[in-house]
Structures
1.
Amino acid sequence: MMFIDPHIHMLARTTNDYEAMAAAGVVAVIEPAFWVGQPRTHVGTYIDYLSTIVGWERFRAGQFGIRHYCTVGLNSKEANNEALAEGVMEILPRFAVKEGVVAIGEIGYDEQTELEDRYLRKQLELAKELDMLVQIHTPHRDKKRGTSRTMDVCEEHGLDPSKVVIDHNNEETVQEVLDRGYWAAFTIYPKTKMGSERMVEIARHYGSDRMMVDSSADWGVSDPLSVPKTAHLMLKRGIPEADVHRLCYGNALDAYGQSGQIAEADWTNPPEIDQRTLYEGNSVLRGQAPRVDSDGSGPERHADLERLSPDELGVEN
Amino acid sequence: MASPYDLLQSWLTRQLTDQGREWLGATLAKVAQPGDDKALYVALGLVPRKLGKADLALGSEELEAAAAARPGWDPRGWSVDQAARVLLLLGAAEVEPERFPDLLDTLCATADVGELVAIYRGLPLYPRPDSLVTRAAEGARSNMRALFEAVAHRNPFPREQFAELAWNHMVLKALFIGSTLYPIQGLEERANRNLARMLRDFAHERWSAGRPVSPELWRCVAPYAEGEALDDLAKALEMDAAGGARGAALALAANGGADARKVLARAPELAGAIESGRLSWETLSKETG
């Protein structure tokens, strides 16, 4: 089974993670621009960060046979530093049209301050101007109201809900997000947000239309295998395979595919120039020898997820 | 004679769709306006979205025209997006050639990988090459193999512009990261004693670690095959049957001195293969490449 993790901060992850993800079937990832755990203080570091996620990280992922895409934006936390925020808004258009940039994101509210609101609105306008998708980060605190408010603002600015992905949903927010016509993403996180078992119940209740699963794995306690693990747990719990496929692959592709920057052929039949230079490819799909390093040793393989028990598959605290 | 600009434009015109041609024409006109860097940033970013990433279709005639327009220019392996990006850069360079090196630095600061590969592949075509050496060396320092090779492979820029230190590190790095030497232009012309010493030290490290030594390494040692270097070549000839022996034999043959020939005589089969043309740096590169 192929998986897409449509929200993961690979910049903070190790090569072991990449190897384990590739071995578990992850073929593509989307790296949203976010903060880096502590606030940046200069626009220069922000430029280098964006340049890293459109360049270096994309290359790094390609070495493990994983296709890397990203979203660019000013996150809600750093929107509270007005000088930084103004600088970022100025350089953002330069990054928005880079190859593999699938949306403006992750943007939204953190504490729902006035500055966060101002820069959310400015970025929604930018997305509209460039005809881009939007990836929304919903707040951890005051979540339900923050999520509704974000959708109100998107609609106030005339965005089409089918071009907006609302992320970090839970049982309390999903109904409204789907009712209003948005894509709903669920972050499977060990300590907060959603757990795999809860995700199974959501799939049971809501099916698989316009919903997707992601890991949001970053520099904190998180699991880069959340998507494949949750998929296997769903299968074990009797969720139909077609639904699991949509939740863990197809819907992310449909939603972000609207950007024209991500397509299945990118990993099943990549352009020759990419095969020569930027993408080591998938040995199964392309019928080539498995990747080995110059010493002849292959990557460390992750334990076969099929054999893990539901307990081991559950990404819970 | 056609300029590189003309050639790129005609190759692209032939291969693009009507829509692509129209976009490229309008965009070239836009970036030819002085003082509008933003148009160039956006245009460079948009190229793959507008024109795709197909391989540039080039036959021997086109390659000859390229080499005639700019000696050493070898656009084999270029793609449509790369050709279009270089064409746009050449268009912008024409407007204000004096400012071009600064402009290139600014572009690189926010470029994605595809843009960087194109920028570095275009190095031999830009004005003021002597002001682009730092930029080129930055590309050769990259950890991204595609960028390193955009500078090092099939590119006359390093042979013409790099000082010895930068040249030597580029060659050594090619071997270090498992890339190949064969597509580097000017290997014989730029061979030097320091590089030969660095490469031999590297071979010793690999031998100590029990790891294979690229047969291509010996190519740059060839002119200095004497004393300890000759001992190393003899050792490679004897123990490195996996591949190094063939490189050592080629180096000894290239050196051609009496001592070198004496060592080569220990491997008559390889000497015969070289004599008959069955073994050359080119045939070797087909295995290592």
2.
Amino acid sequence: MKREIPLAITAIFGIFMVAQLFIPHYLVQDISGRLQDWAVVIVAFAYILGVANIIKINSGVICRRGQDWEYKIVMLIALVIMMLSGILLGKDPDDSLPIFDFMYNSMYVPMQSTMFALLAFFIASAAFRAFRARTTEAILLLVTATIVMIGRVSLGEFIWERLPDITEWIMNYPNNAGKRGIKIGASLGAISIGLKVILGIEKSYLGGD
Amino acid sequence: MLEILITWIAAFFTLCIFSFLYKDNPIYKFAEHVFVGVSFGYGFVLQYYNVFLPNVWNRMPWEDGGSLFTLIPLILGLLMLTRIFPDIGWISRWPLAVMIGSYAGLQIIGNAQGDLIEQVRANFLPLWTDTFSETIGNWFLVFGTITTLVFFFFSKEHKGVIGHTARVGIWVLMISFGASFGYTVMARVSLLIGRLQFLLEDCLHLM
Amino acid sequence: MLEFLKYLDRRIIFIFIFLSTAIPLLFDIGLPIGSTKPVRDVYDHIEKLPPGSKVLVSCDYDPGSMPELFPMNIAVFKHLFDRGMKVYTTELWPAAPPLVENAWRETGGAMGKKYGTDFVNLGFKSGGEVVIVRMGTSIPELYPEDYYGTRISKIPMMEGIRDIQSFDFIMNISAGYPGTREWVQQIVSRYNMDLASGCTAVSAPEYYAYHQSGQILGLLGGMKSAAEYEKLTGIPSENPPIKARAMKGMDAQSMAHLVIVIFIIIGNVVYFLERKEQKDKR
């Protein structure tokens, strides 16, 4: 029950996903399609599990007055307001009380954008500290990065009109050679892992017991 | 009025997050926790309206055009939630197996025909063309890819010819990583520009 | 001086990055914006499509990559509506639907296009490549309703849409996973469909390989490409009023890159001076 059934489910779903490509018979197509519909729903429930976990873990921290427990209260309040306002009052701005839309625009959008914008500062600092022309490999990396950084923006075009073409050439040929090598290697790895999962050889996802 | 309020609250939270640049502080932590709460709440609502209602609830057997089969993903989905309870958490492996099996199958197909075959096929290029840059480029692509693959081939010790070829492979990879770094810098700076455009234009009307 | 540079407080670097980005935003420098081949390829392909073609735009991004991809989204929508296409959108990232709504309002909505006859937003579905593959076999099964909960049988432009092959062209605006890679792997390879990608600069180097292999017809990579596409599609425009968000940021982008390159050079000068000092001591 604990291991055999999940392994069988994995194999059935995996085989149908592969069979859909090779067997055009309507029965295989129909079953595969249905299984995909189920998978879409189950992935959504996985998200709900994530929310449930957030509530469980953080309410535990609050109850035992753990580290940063005050902030956990803020987090749970934000979570509950967002969920309730969205489900009870509607998600669209045209609705009577657009709290959900308001929170999305005034909190979610600016904070997520700014979180990623912070990286601009850190990448500059990291480049200053770590980018050293110590070896041939490092020099190649450094020179390519510099050409691309300047050549791909308007400044490159302003300095020398051929610089964008050189950058494009680097992207189309040397860059592609490396990326293609990685892609071919990674795809071979992904195929073998996929096969091992479907055949029940790789079962670490089941955890212990 | 609502627009102005949204803009200023957004500006407040933007500055809260930017305050991390000085050092970790309570204002940043406050914003960070609000963000986690809001984003999970948002995701929950989206799943409810975009997946649960149209693909599950409105397709229950008693609905027009509904089907008994819809009960299966619903039950499996609910079983996923058993993971919260340690005693019966193992049941969640069943729906998990649905996800793992589906993705494993699709990964095989996608990687085989989308990446492996097509990328190998695309590397059969003429080594002599009308333009000098294309000729050099094609040499780079054909032999650069091969040397990169040799570098990733660990079944044989990197000595002699294989060692030299693998070393060239590292150089190709370094050029490739350099290009990626250049583009990553571009991406991060773009995001900063976006936030500064918001602060300078939408909030302060300086632009 | 060497010691100062060696242990330079990162916050000094932060200030330089901030100033190099903010000042060009306030004072226009007017650096040139040309167009590159991967961008022109996208533009040319849409130009060649006959008016009334059905175009699926899969907007797979979120606010985290908005400065790069939202201007791209706007420019692509404007181009498609200008050319009289029927635009269908789907989203594989949960935070995308409101952004797509904003893009629609700013372009098609302002151009007098009608929801349901010129544009439809099918909304978000969870599952990444599972969703993509299912679109290959049945769209009505996967999307029984649009983003607003309207039955698709009641939406005029959904008539005749059976599966992914009902579309003439797919444009993917992608911030990562799931995105262009999954569309290429699951749709282009299986159904031999025309796909173009608009992606973040982080993903672009990987997708160049797809462009070279012909798996994608064109590539918009990052804010610079968004600016190029804005220019090609006549943005900024007064009717409808659309701001040139990406083009406006290009001077700042150039200056920030220049400052980072200068810092890299300084870092290396410090490194070599330090090495020389150590050699001299020995």
